[in-house]
Every structure is written in C-alpha cells, then in structure tokens.
Predict the 3D structure of the following.
Amino acid sequence: MIQASPVTRELFDDVMVPNYAPAAIVPVRGEGSRLWDQNGREYLDFAGGIAVNVLGHAHPRLVAALTEQAHKLWHVSNVLTNEPALRLAQKLCELTFAQRVFFANSGAEANEAALKLARKYAADHFGPDKREIIAFTQAFHGRTLFTVTVGGQPKYTEGFEPLPPAITHAPFNDLATFAAAISDRTCAVILEPVQGEGGVTGATPEFLQGVRELCDRHQALLIFDEVQCGNGRSGHLYAYMGYHVTPDILTTAKGLGGGFPISAMLTTAPIAASLNVGSHGTTYGGNPLGCAVAGAVLELISDPELLAGVRRKHARFMAGLRAINERFGVFRDLRGQGLLLGCELEEPWRGRSRDFIKAALDEGLLVLVAGPDVIRLAPSLIIPDELIEAGLERLERAIARLAAG
Ligand SMILES: *Cc1c(COP(=O)(O)O)cnc(C)c1O
C-alpha cells in the first residue's frame, strides 16, 4: 500500500481557517471511551466529541448500521423520501410528544428551522405584530446569524452586525423578569433545559413550569433546545421528560447520530402545518446514512436500562469529583444532570479552565470547558465504570500537578 505523506498538527495553521485552536495531538482511532493519537498514545475520553459520542467510538452496532446503509443508498435528496428517514421519524414520534419531524444536519440548522417555524406559525395565526423571540443569557443555540443572535453570549455576535431584529434576552432561572418580558407580541421562547456551553446550568423545575404557563397565557411557542442535553445525556431520553414539562417544538442533534452529522426538529401536527410545501428545506436533511445511524443510536439509548445506567454513572462521577475536591479544593460547585457534568472553579483558579484541559491532556484524559470558569464532562453514556475510575485518577493527577504549580 502506498502511504500518503504524513500530516501533523502544525499543518493545521497553514491550511485551515484559524477559527479553532485544536489541541496538540491528532487522534487517529477510537474504540469505546478510548482514543489513540498519531504516536499510539492512549487517551480516555470524558469529552465525547462535545457530547456527541453517546455510544463511544466505533460502536459495533453503529458501524454495522452505517456500512449496511452505505452499500445500499447514500443520498436521494428530498425530492424523494427514504426508508431510514421514515423509520427514524416514526420512532421519534413514538418515543416523544412529537407528531411531526424535520431532519437537518446540525444543531444550528434544527434551531434555525424551529425559529423560522415559530415566526411562520405566528404570521399564519396571529398576523405580523407577533414576532418577538425571547431567549436567555448564557444560552447557546448555534452559529448561523439567526441562532447566534438568539444565543445569549454577546462575544459570539460581535463584528457580525447587523443582526436579525426582534430578539431579546432574559436572565435564566429568573421567572419574575421573564414574566415582565413576555407579552402577546412574543411568538416564541427558546431555552436549553440544561444550558451546556454556557456553564452546565440546569433549569429549575419551577422556572420551566412557569415559562410553560406564561407561554400558554400569551400564545407563544415554547422551544426546547435539546441539541446537547437530549438523547439520553440527562439520564432521561430527552431532558423535558425528567422535568415533566412538554415543549411545542424540540430540537436535537449532537448525540442523535452518535458522531454522524444529523439533527431533528420535533413538533406537533398543527404547528408543523405552517411549514407547508416549499417554505423551508435542506439538501442533505434526512439523508439515508445519517438516519440509518441515528435509528441504531435511538434504539440503544431509549433502553430504560441504559438510561438507568446514565443516572448510576452520574452518581459515580459526582462521588469521585467530590473526593478530588476534598483534597484540592479547586471546585466551588459540582453540578449537571446524567452525564453532562460541570465543575465550576474556585478562586484562584477562576478563568483558568483551559489550563485544566491542557493538564488533563498531558495525563491522557480528554475533558471540555464550558466557559472560562467551568470544566465540562460529557463522556459516552455507556462508559465502563473502570474507565470512569481510571479517568478520574488521571484528572486527579492533572489537578495535583496544577496545584503544585
Ligand atoms: C452544539 C449546540 C448547538 C449547535 O449545534 P451545531 O451542530 O454545532 O450547529 C445548538 N444548541 C446547543 C444547546 C448546543 O449545545
């Protein structure tokens, strides 16, 4: 076999747009919750490709679903429908509140569809004065101009003005301020039941319940962005199920394809009716490869045993993180749901989450940040208990080295 010339991390800076700053290693292979880099060094994966690899790397059932479909049919466009898409939509309707499904390829696109649908639904039913969208500070909804404007982190919109209008932000988990902000001009409210990028902050049950009631009172659609906290991540198939608060529209992506790009927007039949023929679309949305893989993912992650395992593993992580904190006192708060965990840094470590990532990588462990003050963990939902322990040991070694200066 002819070997291609070697590529290295240095090449990134010569050929890629500089919007990312990837770590110094280049992974070449993964299996379960382990990865190997170009030099054959092993890493434990508590990052899960940013909450994407819900079943770890190269899960045999997903590999089988993908390769089986790859031999049959890759793409037909939405001029035709296809069997994997129909099966997946049917399964999502069975498992959730949804009666209708729209497929896209990324979280941002699912949110873009949800926000456009909310505007269109309001235009169809209430006329042009109902078009305001309320979102929350620290929220993250994607990077298209609409979704990034709806997101609640001004640093991501700076320089990209002019921004789409009629979008306002309220503080998360503050029902009184939200109640003052919503009106009959509000067409939609969008939130993450568990904010991911913004710091791993769960909504309080009273807040979600209150937002639901106020949306009903003002005939505004409630959109839950479960791009990150959905697909078993919270210990429930979708986080709304744990809160017993049902949205009008739910978006999801990340874990849905277990690493294959696919996203979905779920809604009811009366709301879906506003996306009539020709009103919205995407070339790749619902393509057979993505839908075949997501079908296999959904079958595995909707198993109550697996979801109970996520909640058990949550407890194991929390106990381990607490024990580390008893020794080093680096965390002011340990929080999260299921296997989406946030470790908020205590003084004098605040603002230094990236140093922890780097120290962990040096010990052979991949972790994430959620802003400058929070270390975020989003491992595979089926990470074996031994690897949780081994990864926590590596994290402890990394923290010990940081603490020693
Ligand atoms: C990652 C994320 C998005 C954006 O998804 P992309 O696939 O990167 O477009 C949107 N919302 C939430 C909550 C996310 O975590």
